[in-house]
């Protein structure tokens, strides 16, 4: 039966209305060459942020130009500034309304009864029960022609504003997902629990557990090295870019917006790897300079960071993807932040 033209128009109009209810379009700028974001539309303006080819910049004020400059929001610092128009190309992309509004609403999908048997437990009893729940996950190779850690991180850490990119942990920069290391110009894989703390390397298990692996700048990865986590030190300047990360000879302090992420990844590792079979017994302790022991610190600082930077939708989304599509286990401290205090507060 032939559908009348008026009916076809009504159906198309309805579908467009539904599409617009869930999605919006937004102007973005893709950086073509390395450039600078300034606090004023002139070459003499104060430097806010150095940006690199492929970075995605959100336009401000509908992308109006002032003296040949676009007003933008820096991808790493989130600070408003100006970038010269010839350094970028403009693109209109569909993005979820919640991203346009500045939030990602991802409540997390915890299977019913996943944490059964944890009620009323604390201390080592709770730690042991959580280990029973999250152990025996599906393991993937670090580098392989089949699905490996590179492939998984391209899904778990996808830049929602630019789906062909990944979002980097310590700097929040956006990088082309296919630029795997790229002679130090691309991104690499950060073992948040430094792999030398226990010398597990990149073997399946602790060495490839994506709950504690994140994309990072290759240069920042080298600067962090295998340091423990603690407050203090001097700010790490990546080229000319103030990274918001600090370090000294034995510790690393990540940017404020990922302090809690780091803490919860460390806590996960200390619960998942309890020395069963041929696995290491990883422990989070009140100390720094713990290399090469299978330990990581500093416990009191990590507890503080867990409280200061609560679980957000990015972590919940990542937790769901790892569980549903890859490893089949979850980070309990994302699903139940209160477990941290129940295990380590004393």
Structural notes for this entry:
With 346 residues, the chain is an alpha+beta fold. It has 10 helices and 18 strands. The chain has 2 domains: 5-100, Roll (SH3 type barrels), CATH 2.30.30; 123-344, no CATH class. Helices cover 28% and strands 23% of the residues. Strands 1, 4, 5, 6, 7 and 8 form a 6-stranded antiparallel sheet that branches. It has a 4-stranded mixed sheet with strand order 13-16-15-14, with helices on one face. The protein starts with a helix and ends with a helix.
What order do the SSEs take from the amino end to the carboxyl end, as H and E?
Answer: HEEEEEEEEHHHEEEEHEEEEHEEHHHH
* Number of helices, counting only DSSP H or I runs of 4 residues or more: 10
Question: How many domains is the backbone divided into?
Answer: 2
Any idea what the radius of gyration is?
22 Å
**Which spans of ≥5 residues are poorly predicted at pLDDT below 50?**
7-25, 97-102
- Oligomerization: single chain
The total count of strands amounts to: 18
Shape: globular
In which range does the helix fraction lie? Answer: 25-40%
> What structural class do the secondary elements suggest?
alpha+beta
Distance between the termini: 73 Å
Strand composition percent? 15-25%
């Amino acid at each position: 039966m032939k559908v009348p033209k008026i009916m076809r128009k009504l159906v198309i109009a309805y579908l467009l209305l539904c599409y617009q209810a869930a999605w919006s379009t937004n102007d973005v700028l893709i950086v073509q060459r390395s450039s600078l974001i300034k606090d004023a539309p002139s070459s003499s303006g104060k430097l806010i942020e150095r940006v690199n080819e492929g970075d995605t910049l959100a336009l401000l004020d509908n992308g109006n130009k002032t003296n040949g400059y676009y007003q933008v929001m820096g991808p790493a610092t989130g600070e408003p500034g100006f970038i010269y128009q010839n350094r970028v190309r403009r693109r209109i992309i569909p993005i979820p309304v919640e991203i346009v509004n500045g939030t990602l609403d991802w409540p997390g999908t915890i299977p019913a009864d996943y944490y059964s048997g944890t009620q009323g437990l604390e201390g080592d009893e709770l730690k042991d029960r959580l280990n029973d729940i999250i152990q025996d996950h599906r393991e993937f190779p670090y580098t392989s022609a089949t699905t490996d850690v590179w492939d998984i991180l391209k899904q778990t850490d996808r830049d929602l504003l630019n789906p062909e990119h990944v979002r980097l942990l310590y700097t929040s920069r956006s990088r082309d997902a296919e630029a795997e290391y790229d002679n130090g110009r691309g991104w690499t894989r950060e073992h948040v629990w430094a792999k030398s703390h226990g010398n597990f390397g990149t073997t399946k298990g602790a060495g490839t557990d994506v709950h504690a692996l994140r994309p990072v700048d290759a240069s920042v990865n080298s600067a962090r090295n295998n340091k423990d986590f603690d407050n203090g030190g001097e700010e790490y300047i990546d080229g000319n870019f103030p990274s918001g990360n600090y370090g000294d000879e034995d510790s690393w302090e990540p940017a404020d917006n990922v302090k809690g992420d780091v803490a919860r990844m460390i806590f996960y590792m200390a619960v998942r790897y309890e020395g069963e079979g041929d696995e290491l017994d990883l422990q989070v302790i009140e100390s720094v300079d713990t290399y090469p022991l299978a330990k990581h610190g500093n416990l009191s600082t990590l507890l503080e960071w867990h409280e200061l930077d609560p679980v957000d939708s990015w972590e919940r989304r990542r937790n769901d993807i790892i569980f549903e599509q890859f490893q089949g286990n979850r980070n309990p401290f994302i699903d139940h932040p209160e477990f941290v205090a129940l295990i380590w507060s004393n």
